[in-house]
Design goal:
By secondary structure, this protein is mainly alpha-helical. The protein has helices spanning about 1-20, 20-25, 35-60, 65-90, 95-100, 100-125, 125-130.
């Protein structure tokens, strides 16, 4: 299950980036828009790179995989918060206008589920025996 999720995670990130392309074009026309767009794309691409590194370490059975997965878990809410801070700062918006309760719920849900996998990766003897390189 974790293999499927980790394999699809970078693809899901790129898909979300692609879905936002039309919005980015319209935001670029607003004062401060280009900075917001480039900042959000940079945050998203940095998270994408981390996801790819974690996936490669998983497929290579690297002993670093559980620790990298932990960092990816921490990066999930961190990228969400950084993105919100970027938008709030550039456009001088209240947080309630920059993010919906649905987005907060989705992020917290993903963080909780991934947290269970983090716990498993650190508690499992099977994992210790698998990631040995």
């Amino acid at each position: 299950m974790i293999v499927i999720g980790q394999t699809l995670a970078p693809l899901r990130t790129l898909s979300n980036l692609n879905k936002n392309l039309d919005d980015y074009e319209s935001v670029k026309l607003v004062s401060g828009g280009p900075l917001a767009v480039y900042g959000e794309v940079a945050i998203t691409l940095a998270f994408f790179v981390l996801q790819v590194v974690v996936a490669v370490s998983m497929y290579n059975r690297s002993r670093k995989f559980p620790r990298l997965f932990f960092f990816q878990w921490i990066a999930l809410p961190l990228t969400f918060v950084l993105d919100i801070l970027l938008i709030v700062t550039i456009f001088h918006l209240p947080v309630s206008q920059a993010v919906s309760p649905q987005e907060v719920g989705q992020t917290l849900g993903a963080f909780a589920v991934t947290g269970l996998w983090v716990w498993y990766l650190h508690a499992s003897t099977r994992v210790r025996n698998t990631f040995v390189k």
